[in-house]
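Lecture 7, part B: from sequences to assemblies.

Below are the input chains for today's worked example.
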Amino acid sequence: MELKSRYIYIVILLAVLTSLPLWVGGFLRDALILFFLYLAAAEVWGFMAKHAGIVSLGQQIFIGVGGYTTAVLSMYFGIPMYASVIISGLLGAGLAGLLSFPLLRLRGVYFAIGTFLAAEVIRLAFSGWEFVGAGKGLIFRDAYGIPTTIIYYPALALAVISIFLVYLLYHSKLGFGLRSIGADEDVACGLGVNTFVCKATCFILASLITTLVGAVNVIHHTYLHPTSAFSISWTVNFLFVAVIGGVGTIVGPIIGSALFVAFGYLFAQYLGLSLLLEGLIVLAILIALPQGVWSAISRKLKLNLKPPL
Amino acid sequence: MMEILSYINLILNGLLLGGLFALTAFGLSVLAGIMRVINIAHGDFAILAAYLSLTIMNSFGMDPFLSLVFVAPIMFAVGYFFQKFTINRVLAMGANQVVLVTFALSIVIQNLLLLIFTADARSLITPYLLTNIELFGLNPSPRYAVGFISALIVFGLIFIFFKKTYLGKAMRAVPFDPEAAKMIGIKSEVIYNYAAGLALLVVAIAGVLLGLAFTFYPDTGPMYVLLSFGVVVMGGLGSLKGTLIGGFILGEALVLGGFFFGSRFQLMFCYLVILAILYLRPRGLFGGKV
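Predicted structure of the full complex, as structure tokens:
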């Protein structure tokens, strides 16, 4: 494919996606919002896990913080909602920066459990914090009546930004450093890569996207509860979306997210069944097809895609 | 005087609980020590064992302790075959892949239990464990005491197993030098299978004892894996002595945390202690290699 025609395809695709809420029904709009939100978060999660070797089991921290900050700022402080979303993103990025110091000292498996622990601590703290409704949760009344035609756009924007971010990161100097860390952290360090700065930057950027996903999600769902806002099932879902298509690819999570949303609707009335099937599928793919479905397809069709795709 | 006595009582109960925590963490520690991997589904296996025991208790009217005659071998088989057919296949892809696989397994176990047993609180509590013991004016909790004594017995048996039997020695040899172990005819993968079986056998005992001491839900597992991880981090990987000491520290942290900060922030305090130790000693209190 020539470079020029590739840009034309991207522009057409974006034009179609932008006009989509005008002509699809409410149900599909809901599904698309979910699709974009999970896509945005899973792209960066997969990039971190695959290329930088940072497996975070605590991304629900940022979903929760994004949701709570947006709701609290607009309801208690009267800040306009779009501004609350942006502030929540900055706060999430700041929190990721702070957490980098204790957590990124830990490597590999230790980091994974460290993030899980941090997420549980924050969940328990929110469960006991009366200001944000403690265990009763928080109803985001200000977001009532915001039509999905409007929420659709920030969700789409997040997905697009996330994909471009992953693409640019992969090809940047930072991405080069990250990939060398993912391959062998000690060697990377020996070659003069500032491993902490590289990992922290990646973690902060990924968490910024995840926080914004949490913020848009709360506007869509209008309800917050510490157990669900900081639930590990967020990270399970990102894992599912990223793993199905292929961790660390850009196209993979698109397939994964579509499947995830379809699953959610198919098994909506069975409590736990959807997560059970998700877990089983992730298990099967990790063991039998560790490169993911997308990599297998692109190899079969001989698409010869370059790595981040 | 009374006041000092109640503090001593608190510390005694923390110690007793610590023994149980050490036993719970053993499986995680032994797998981390031998294979250099962390089993995220560790806590869910413990809860699975508790539910198995509950099922046997309810359908045959069997005492939870006696139910271990069935639960322990079942869990041994689960560990053996899960290691053989899944973990051994992804081991070469690195520790992170194992984290993802066991994380997915954890989700599967939790939701399977949720489907079968619903989200209701369950317990294995038996009447004889609700009696009040009085010892030199102290009130050790019989539920913790049973856990503590069982833990010491199991640890003693494990110690003998590692020192005296061929299999136990082989398990210690493999992580020490995999190449040399291979040279004298030890197949590391077979050893891993047995190690995972042993780990889950002990987890089964721990799970039943935890079920005796606390109520449990289908999603209680992650709490125990985090606490067990804390024990392992404090004690160093694969070290029996370290695991016991780590267990005691966390037992005290939980009991004292509950006393000073209330049950609401008890667990949070415990997690913060673990995070603090991870921060100060990213490789564990007693050294240890990952």
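Note for the exam: The longest helix of chain A spans residues 195-221. Keep this in mind when comparing with the next example.
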